[in-house]
Structure formats: C-alpha cells, structure tokens
Amino acid sequence: MKINSYDIHVIFNFKESTYKGTEIINLDTEDGVELDAVGLEIHSVEIDGRSADFKLEDNKVKVKTGKFSGDLRVTFSGKVRDTLVGIYRAPYNGSYMFSTQFESSHAREFIPCVDHPAYKAKFRLSVTVDRGLQVISNMPVKETREEGDQVTYVFHETPPMSTYLLYVGVGKFEEFRLQNVPEIIVATVPGKISKAKLPAEFARDFIRKYEEYYGIKYQLPKVHLIAVPEFAFGAMENWGAITFRETALLADEKSGFSNIRRVAEVVAHELAHQWFGNLVTMKWWNDLWLNESFATFMSYKIIDMLHPEWYMWGEFLLDETAGALLKDSIPTTHPIETKVNSPEEVEQIFDDISYGKGASILRMIESYIGKDEFRRGISKYLQKFSYGNAEGKDLWNSLEEASGKPVSKIMPHWVLEDGYPMVKVQIVGNQLELTQERFGLHPVPEKTYPIPITLMVNGEKKDLVMEGKSVRIEVGHVNELKVNLDKAGFYRVMYFDLGPVLASELTPEEQWGLANDYFAFLLAGKVSRDEYFKVVRSLMSAKHHLPVLELADQLSFLYAVNSQKYGEIAREFHSKQVKEWSTRQDPVGRRTYSTLAMNLSKMDPKFATSLSAQFSQYDQLDGDLKSAVAIAYAVSAGSQALDQLLTMYRQSKFDEDKTRLLNALLSMNSPHSVVNVLSMVFTGEMKKQDIIRSLQYSLFYPNVRDAVWEWIKIHSKKVAEIYQGTGIFGRVMADVIPLLGIGRVEEVERFFEANPIKGAEKGIRQGIEILKAVSRIV
C-alpha cells in the first residue's frame, strides 16, 4: 500500500476538549486498507464517494477495497486528553492549550492513518476553532476564513513526511518573529515572550551553519519554535513546528550558562533533525539511532563552530558519552540498531544508547576517517535519500565512498552488537602490549571489536585498527604514554602502570577519560579504592572544568553512597576547587563554581550557611549562582525554608526559576518536607512534566532516601501513568535506583517484580543492575 496524501479538516470544541474530523486519503493498494486508530470514533468510510463497509478492531480501521487507486474518505471524532502524548491539553495559569506529541506512534490517537515512518505522505490541513484562538501547524497559513463565531485556518501543503512529524497546536499565543529565510517564529502562551529573542537568534545561526555544512537549504518557508507549558520530553522535531519544554527553549542573558547552553543544544538538536530525520527518515524504528544519534552529534558540532569558547566537545563527554558508557556496560543493554517488533517497544529505546552511544560512535568514526570526508559523506547521503527513507547501511556506504576507508566493515560491529571493549595496556620491554576484553560492571559474554586505537608514546602519535584479542607495538623505552587520544574512541583503557600516563601532558578530554574509566573500574571491582583514589589525587588540582565537573559528579555520588568512606576526599576536593573557581566571571567558570558549590553545600553545613547569606539578594544573582544559593539556603535552613521557597515557587513566572526552586526544595535534609513536595504533583501545584526528573535531587541524604522509597512504593504506578506512552518513567528509574536502592537491593528487586510497570521494565532492570555494582563499594 502507498499513501500519497492526507487532506484533513478538524473542527475543535475548545471548551469541551473534543473535535470532529474529516479526512480524504489518496492511496494505492493491491488488497484492502488498514488504518491505525486508537481512542477514536469512526463514523463513516467512503470509497470514491460511495459508502463502504468497515471494521474497527485491534485499533485498526479495516476496509475491503480490493485493488484500488483513489480517495478514501473517513469521518471521525475524538477527545483531547489530559495525557502527555497524542493530542492533549497543556494547562497554564488556569487556562490551557492543545498540543500534539506523535512520536513514535501516537498520530493514530488524533487521526486514522498509516502510522508508520516509511509511509510518507503530503498533508493538507485545515482547522476550525472559536474566534480568538490561533492554530499553529507545520506549514504557514495559506488563508483564514471567518464563519460566525468560528475561524478556519487553512495551511499550505507539506512535503512528503511521516505521520509522527505532523503538528497541531491550538490556543492563545504570543509570537516573536525574526525576518529571515526561513522565517523564524518563537511562540509562547501569553506572558512568556520576553525570553524568545535569544532562542530565535540561535535558530537563525544554526540553520545557516547547517545549510552550509550539509550543502542543502532548509526545506520549509518557516520554522516555529513552540514553548509548550506541559511537555514530557525536552523537545520534538515536528517538521517546521518544533515543540519544546519551556526550560528547553526560553532563556535570556540572565538565565545563566547552564540554561543558555541547554537551550542552545536542544534548539540545535531539533534543527539538525529537520535534515536528519525529517528530510531523510529511517525506514523503521530499529534505526531510531539514525535520527537521534546524528542530531545529538551535530548539535554539539554546530554549536562548537559558533561558540568555541563553550568547549562543547567536553560537554559532549559529560552529557552523552558518560551515560552511554555506563548503560552499555550492564547486561540489560542493546545494540545501537536494535530489533523493534512493535511501536510500543520503541519508547524504551529512546535512551543513552540510541542517543549517546550512537553519537559517540559517530565522533569516533569522524576521528578515524577525517572531518572533511565525514562531511562529504553526510551530504552525499542526505542528497541521495531526500524526502525518502534510509537504513544504517546507506549511511556507511556514503561515508565509505567519501573517505575510501572501510567504514562498512567496522561500523556493523559497533552498531549491530552491544557492549564495548576495555583495552589493557602493559609495557613489556621495548614493546607495548594491548589486550582487549569486553567491559562490564557484571559478567558479560566475551567479544572482540575492531577498535580504532590512537596513542602517543614519548610525544609520538601512532594509530591502528586493532581487530584481534591482542597486539604488540615496538615503541622503545617508555617515559610518557597515553591511549585513546582526546577520548575519541568508545572504549576504556586500563594501565598496568599509571606512572608514564601521569607523567604525560593530558588534554582535558584525556583527564576526563582517565577519571571516568577508573570510576567504572572501581564499580566493576577491577581496581581497589586506593587505586581509584590515586587517579583522583592526580587530578585534585585540575585547572580545566571538564575533569573538575567529572570528579565533582563522582565524588558527590560517592559521598551520598557512604559519607564515612568517601566523605573526606569528597570534601577536600570540593573545598579546594570551590576556592579556585569562586572568582571566575566567564560563563563556563560561573557554571562550574555553581555545581561545586551545590555539592559542597550538601556536604559541609558551614559552607552552606555561608553561601545561603546571598539568598536575600536572590533576584539579582546570576542564573547559575541562583541554583547554588537556593540549595544552600534549603540545606542550611531546613524545613524552616519550606514556606518561603514554596511561596517563591508558586509566584515564579518562568519554569526556569520554578525548576531551580523545586530542586532546592527537594534537596532539603528533611524527609517529611521532601515527600510533601513530591506529592504536589497530585494537587496540580507541580507540573506533571517535573515530578520524575526532579526525583534525583531528593536522594543525597540516607534518611530522605528512606522516605522517598516509601513514597515510590505507594505512588509508583500513579506516577508512571502520568508518563504512559513516553518511556520516561523507566529511563529515569535507571538513573534513580542506583542511589535510591542502597541498602535495600533485594527489597527493590522484589517490589518491582511484584508491581511491574508496563513500558518501564528495561529501565528498572538497568537501575537494579547498576545498583548491584554500586553496592560493592558501599
């Protein structure tokens, strides 16, 4: 069956949150039609103007047509729900807007359609709403027609695209427009437009750079960037009508570097999709990584081109590679390209593997074949498959043609197989012996990988593709040594002798790699605590924010795990580094100080009290410092701070500040206060989107963890229902359980076995596997 076009007209009853629809689907079929439809009432079906019999079963509209080429007309009706997928109500300040979230398989909850990424079609959309409401969709408005108290918005026809990229937004909007080609429009609910200029300028600059990099112009006449007040994900790349969580889009110069950088990265990521995902789309969801890995990789690349002072490839290691290395080291991992049997399975693979590992492998391959060759291959791929669908092998072939290197031989091992190697490095006389084994926090099946190895001995660079179990290289006497230069390769390195490594001049990326690898080796039981501490002490006075932030993350985690074992070195590191970064005024410096200060506030009551003195000037503080000062105030004042922080939270206009204050409230060392704050999600005081992602802030103190675990046991199913159809509950549990479950491994395992959460099974299993590794070092 081939779908050529959808001609859709929808009439909304905004007050009742219902709609009626008529669609004409132009198609060709050899034997009947099956349309996906979930939660819809189907009133009639016509074939070329004649009434036709149909069945509605198994969430499909089944029509016997025989061999047919022409128009199928369907009338239907549906409801706008209070969920976070399909078409749903996004509330704000006593009002609401309608918004859609169709990836991966939720377009079928709005219209009857063939809800499959390979069935691309053109969409012609018209929407009737009450006068005073506005409608946003993928294309610009072609015309509006007023009829009494209603107005109909008629949109231009889209290019051929997949159903999951269709967008409809209905409500009252303020818009900020940048006259550009394409036109850039930021849309917000009333009262939020003051933070629209910066993201609009980001979008303008990124589009120009992408056009230059890909050699292909942006395809549509406009792009909307829409801030949705209730949104499960960070953003969604609907073609020409990109939706965002407010904190992922709205920012200004006062927001602080953490927020500004996140907005830039998310805007860049979604705009990368306009080519990689929208213009060229995967054939099926097993190649989801083609969309997400590439958009992740390109977002860092494009920002680095425009803002080299932000050091984006360091951020890439912190944000993407670290999580991927962790999740790919446990039994419950999956290949980057993984078999997907049904749309329901897709939600569980929107994870660190599909995003972070895939992007890290792309970085490794670019390093291997060269940046110019990589760009030429990408451009060739996009041009060849424009407005169509492609598979992973199509990308490899394009990169191989552009570079002349055996990309299609190397990549299947990294994309179609799970896990990654650890390379053991030993000096044997005048030779360097490299031996590989698969790395795991727990026993995993043994594999060998073709590894693009880069190393430097006594200042001389060498590279090779290591295909076997081991290899020896003649190097002479070794004074200085480092392997995996700039941490570009997706593998870990264990040295038999750290002396030559610590004698080398390590780049910030290599310092990060050393720290990250040895923390993983500690969790895996491959090195002792003293060996790990040796690496930490070698970097105790690190000057660059990349290794400093990595160690801050590790040591604050270890402090939370067992403050008796790890508290002394954690406080020593943070106290030393806080002093070093306290005077830095550049954006990266302020963000680094803020992170260190947040951590130290939870470890050192005196420091928290001292820092919280700035809370009286909260509104005048830099955005990053606000986060640290709010947490210091919450920690030092305890439950006495509750009322004031809650009042400020309720009065905050922007989600950016609400999130800071919420995180501070959940950082209190007060079990009763923290669980009461968590329960605000059930009263409507906290947005549904915020509850699960904020949980991690409540896990630092053991007594609070105990209370949060009891809260989870009572409310897990209720919270999971909020995120039904998104996969988010499972992904967050993978990150939360390793701290939440300390001291209660068997209890956590038994609880989730007895109370399974549909769609979250994989994430919960991942969390338990990491928890078991963490339990070794408690």
Automatic annotation (TrEMBL):
Its EC number is 3.4.11.-. It comes from the Archaea. It holds the Pfam family ERAP1_C. The active site is at E270 (proton acceptor). Residues 4-165 form the Aminopeptidase N-like N-terminal domain. GO terms for biological process: peptide catabolic process; proteolysis. The record marks Y355 as: Transition state stabilizer. The keyword Manganese does not apply. Its cofactor is Zn(2+). Belongs to the peptidase M1 family. This is Aminopeptidase.
